[in-house]
Design goal:
This is Probable cobalamin biosynthesis protein CobD. The chain has one domain. The protein contains 13 helices and two strands, in the order ααααααααααααββα. Helix 7 crosses helix 10. The chain is globular.
Length: 339
């Protein structure tokens, strides 16, 4: 039952590695973004409108894009359900594109002649005014954004997917112990709930990125919901960065600087990678992490991006391992489910 979730993660990782991103015209997140933009331009700017958007939009996105298609496929064939769940999860992840974009920014920043191009490329990573940034500040922004987007673009949806699959497994075990039928707990239903959870988190992130940082009252609820949803993934991202670097104690040093950014979450992966690389990361006029150190050199920035990539793969392997371990546990309890 939960083994199928591990297969879905592997399918998603394989698609991300080979294709990177689907075309924007068919990308569910891009379509969601266009819908949110239309909603934003149509509805009044009130907190109550923001609350309604925060409640309905991610839930609708999860149901339409993930849960319903996957459960239908699971009814037809469990393997088909796993593959479709992997395809949907793939659209919620972003590893290869993140790494390639960050690498391109750092490479362009090496040359003064290419610095304007580096500033322009940075816009795909970081929402800041890059027109006057020095090469060192461009590299800093690339490293910061790679670490922050590790949480938003990979660890958060993977965590939601794995946690939801685990909850379904626990429900199956509890139902079995209580001698309650578990016929409804099919492979398709497990995959639908897990994939729906990942899509819901992606919907929350998308709302926050589009509405949460505007000086508008309707952005308050999406921003607060994202703060809540990202609390655990941001700290897990810091952990996988520290483990991938072989320096788990860097988390202790990161605690000192993690609260410098306005966000209650983004500072954790950024401060951790700053501690591992022994560099200063700075958004001019907003925050400075480890001010006594120097801004990253090109070599340090490249090390940082390679570290983010290793941490991403560690997150993927951990998700697969957790699903397989849960499957062994559930199977060991003697639970039998349909499909």
């Amino acid at each position: 039952m939960i083994r199928a979730a591990a297969l879905a993660v592997l399918v998603a990782a394989a698609l991300d590695s080979t294709i990177a991103e689907p075309p924007a015209r068919v990308h569910p997140v891009a379509v969601l973004g266009s819908i949110v933009d239309r909603i934003d331009r149509t509805l009044p700017d009130t907190r109550s409108v923001g609350v309604v958007i925060a409640v309905l939009v991610p839930a609708g996105f999860a149901a339409v894009v993930a849960a319903v298609p996957v459960v239908v496929a699971g009814w037809v064939d469990p393997l088909l359900g796993s593959v479709l769940a992997g395809v949907v999860l793939y659209t919620c992840l972003s590893r290869r594109l993140l790494i390639e974009t960050a690498e391109r920014v750092v490479s362009l920043a090496d040359s003064d002649a290419d610095l304007p191009a580096a500033r322009e490329a940075l816009r795909a990573l970081a929402g800041r005014d890059a027109d006057t940034l020095s090469a060192a500040h461009v590299r800093s922004a690339a490293v910061e954004s790679a670490a922050e987007n590790l949480a938003d673009g990979l660890i958060a949806p993977l965590t939601a997917f794995t946690a939801a699959a685990a909850v379904m497994g626990v429900i199956a075990v509890v139902a079995s112990v209580a001698d309650v039928t578990t016929g409804a707990l099919t492979t398709g239903s497990v995959l639908a709930v897990a994939t729906g959870a990942a899509a819901w988190v992606k919907g929350v992130n998308t709302l926050d990125s589009m509405l949460g940082y505007r000086p508008r009252r309707a952005g308050w609820a999406p921003a607060r919901l994202d703060d809540l949803v990202m609390w655990i993934p941001a700290r897990l991202s810091a952990l996988v960065l520290a483990v991938a670097a072989g320096r788990p104690t860097s988390l202790l040093a990161a605690r000192r600087w993690a609260r410098r950014p306005d966000s209650p979450n983004s500072g954790w992966p950024m401060a951790t990678i700053a501690s591992v690389l022994d560099v200063r990361l700075e958004k001019p006029g907003t925050y400075v992490l480890r001010p006594a150190a120097d801004l990253p050199t090109a070599a340090a920035a490249r090390r940082g991006i390679r570290l983010v990539n290793r941490a991403a793969w560690l997150g993927i392997v951990s998700a697969v391992g957790c699903c397989l371990a849960l499957d062994v546990y559930v199977a060991g309890t003697g639970v039998v489910t349909a499909g």
